[in-house]
Amino acid sequence: MKYTMSQVTQLTGIQAHTLRVWERRYDFIKAKRKESKFRYYTEEQLKILLKTSILLQNGFRISTIANLELDEINWEVEAVFNQSTEIESDKIQALVLAMLNFDEALFNRIFDQTVESIGVLEGFTKVFYPFLNLLGGMWVYNKANPAHEHFISNLIRQKLIALTDILASPKDNAQTIVMFLLEGDDHELALLLAYYLAKQAGWKVIYLGIRVPAADLEPILIQTKAETLFTTFTILNPAEQAKLTEFAQRNGNISILISGSKTVVESIPDYSSMKYLPSPYDFISFLEKN
């Protein structure tokens, strides 16, 4: 893969001017050039710059890093990880490294350290969501191997499911919430986080998962007697979203909670018949009040 200077800057936090200065002064990570003189970096160079950024944030000077062999850089980065770094940008860059190297052990270490130090919710809002948003631009511009996306997304998915499984079971009289994604939507991580938060708050969760037709919801609610639905909108799906809106208008006694992209939500006619929750904190507030 080839990465532009702006993409490298976005992923590493190292400014373009700084990269040029390092190249001139230390002969460090020289950008490649196409025939058009367009500058780019290889995936291996990106990995070194990610490690460099982590070391800089942990007290190293570029003059020192530039004189290190790659094995020495790797050793110093490993030492930082062993100290359980509390710097959020360090964790994000480490996750990028884990993804690029298909390094499950590094991912597990960073995920576990993050959850242990700041908890699941803070971990997602401060580390994992920013990481996924950072990668979003790479997918849009085809600057990432789809296999990388599947690898890292599935690891996060597995962790969330495991964390949810060990929570206490709800009481018999617990309120029930039905969670689902509409047909055509496979972006499950936000839904899984909501599942964790609801179960943690003592709610009984009926988790339907992805690709649920809106027409299937009514019989499910009749059978389960649930009075709350939760879904997330990450993509435009006018037909299914319109059916959900119609369902909400017919069933005013049911609380239909929606989260996800504000742009997508606001494009849905009459979405005000449902309750939009902009963040996980708004969802927690709803759970605690009901």
UniProtKB/TrEMBL annotation:
GO terms, molecular function: cobalamin binding; DNA binding; metal ion binding
Pfam families named among the record's database cross-references: B12-binding_2, MerR_1
Domain HTH merR-type: 2-71
A single BP term in Gene Ontology: regulation of DNA-templated transcription
InterPro entries: Cbl-bd_cap (IPR003759), Cobalamin-bd_sf (IPR036724), DNA-bd_dom_put_sf (IPR009061), MerR-type_HTH_dom (IPR000551), Meth_synthase_dom (IPR036594)
SUPFAM superfamilies noted in UniProt: Cobalamin (vitamin B12)-binding domain (SSF52242), Putative DNA-binding domain (SSF46955)
Domain of life: Bacteria
Coiled coil stretches, renumbered: none
Gene3D superfamilies attached to this UniProt entry: 1.10.1660.10, Cobalamin-binding domain, Methionine synthase domain
Name of this protein: HTH merR-type domain-containing protein
